[in-house]
Amino acid sequence: MLSTLGISEFDERVYRSYLTKSDRTAAEIAESLGTTPSRVRRTVSRLAELGMLRREGHGQYRPVSPHTALRALLARRRAETEAAFTAVWGTVDDLADEYRARRLQEDPTGLVEVITGEAEITLRVAELMQSVRTHFWVLDRPPYLGPYSTELEEELTMDLLGRGVDIRSVYTPEALAQPERFELITHLARIGEQARILPALPFRLRIMDRRVALVALVPGRYDRIAVVHRSGLLDALLELFDSYWQRGQSLVATAPATPDGPSAQDLLLLKMMQAGYKDQAIARQLGTSARTVTRRIAAIATGLGLDTRFQVGAEAAKRGWI
């Protein structure tokens, strides 16, 4: 059973012998297992290197708790396996690039896939998302394919962050207009997603691992997309993303929280004000009324000794709240 961790059946038998009676000598263990002391000593040295036995004196060893030793060994083997798979995937990507380059020489139309129809787009996007390993960059603006779900977006983003993916997103105010989405994105931005906002974007764009990009082909619709593979066109899309990224404004605070800073709800409200949301739109995000939003903004202004919304926004930015 422990062979997956690089522990042989004989290694395990020796370890179990120490667990049964920790003060036994190599000769005693060899006799009980029907083997030679030299073989037992070699195995003991190996188990000590693996962290399963601890030396306490000349020729004396004590077993380390299985829970401690095997968990550490399992974590080490898992890290080694993941590193090996990462290296293999890198080779697979290199081979795929060589294959695609040859195919493009024969048939340049393979540079871009055109996918149409909700079912086909959903399937292709899912396939590409499962393969993301290093980068996921997005210019996010409506329209979207199918109904929006905060639960699904949070699950997807957390999965990518768990894989160590570099997530960078530039949103328009319209993209964050879905109820509760603004709050979700600011939360995700605090735990790993890099999120910025701009008043407008030319189209919706997704870039995976800097190797492939998805672009909506028809303005105002997302039922026809282009999948762009490595090429001069993809390089241009990478440059385009970077230009909008540099211009975007961060959705998270630039300074650490302070005791006199706003509450979480007021901070969210200030961020939406900064993004250009009207009171009615803020109310929809917060699940309250526009009148309540107006009163809260007035209370923040009063607390800061200010008169106008513009002054509130400027002061909040100056303090690094937004």
From TrEMBL:
InterPro entries: Sig_transdc_resp-reg_C-effctor, TrmB-like, Tscrpt_reg_LuxR_C, Tscrpt_reg_TrmB_N, WH-like_DNA-bd_sf, WH_DNA-bd_sf. It comes from the Bacteria. Signal peptide: none annotated. Residues 259-316 form the HTH luxR-type domain. PANTHER family: HTH-TYPE TRANSCRIPTIONAL REGULATOR TRMBL2. This is Helix-turn-helix domain-containing protein. It comes from Streptomyces kaempferi.
